[in-house]
Here is the input.
Amino acid sequence: MEKIHLAGLWQFCNCCTCISTQHFFTRPRGFNNKGVLDEYRRPKLAWDVITKLSAKYFGKGNK
Here is the structure.
């Protein structure tokens, strides 16, 4: 039987955190910087890895 592995991308891009939360004051510029793209949608280093892995395992053009 073939094993099926699922992967999820938790956060696509950086975003501003809500000012009413406690996290706002502990993050640089009040941003959640965990995305694979920055707030201007520029790729971070992880973007290349995700692109290569998705092409390898899911193929280009697969739906």
